[in-house]
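sorry for the late reply, my laptop died twice this morning and i had to redo everyting from scratch. anyway the thing you sent over, i finally got around to it. pasting the sequence first so we're on the same page, its 173 residues, then the predicted structure underneath. double check i copied it right bc i was rushing
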Amino acid sequence: MTSIPLNPPRPALAPSRVIALVGLGCLALIAGAWFFEIVVGLRPCKLCLEQRLPHYAAMGLAAAGLVLARSPRLQWFALLGLAGLMAWSTGLGIYHAGVEWGWFAGPNDCGGAAAPVAAGVQDFMKQLQTTRVVACTEAAWRWLGLSLAGWNALASLGLLGLALLGLKGTMRG
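ok and here's the structure:
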């Protein structure tokens, strides 16, 4: 007679699933950033825009990893790249949140996103009067004491942990 274990071991997340989850997490963060920019009307500063770069790269790497990385070795490299990108994103988020809290000096050229191109001189003059420069030192929005930069740091740290967990799983398998 065969006995069934009460607590069967959980299968580790497949590397392809971890790659997909990190890519989808980055997609969700970018969608959130665009939501706050387009719907809520929060204009991003230079550091806000810079924080998006690792997520764009991670979405591309995750898509390529899902399509091309069929061997465990290639999946390992994809996860290593994703972990590196999420470490970069975590660092950028911590730095930007630190600039907002006054812990670090921000960049001297932090002025925000470019305004739409003016159709004529009068439109240009009107833009000069109404354009608000977005400073990296001011958090435009906070929730539970954290700005969007702080939330990005936490989310990126979680995605970094997920990518590292996937790396650990590929080393076992």
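Residues 72-101 form the longest helix (30 residues).
thats about all i looked at so far, will dig more tmrw
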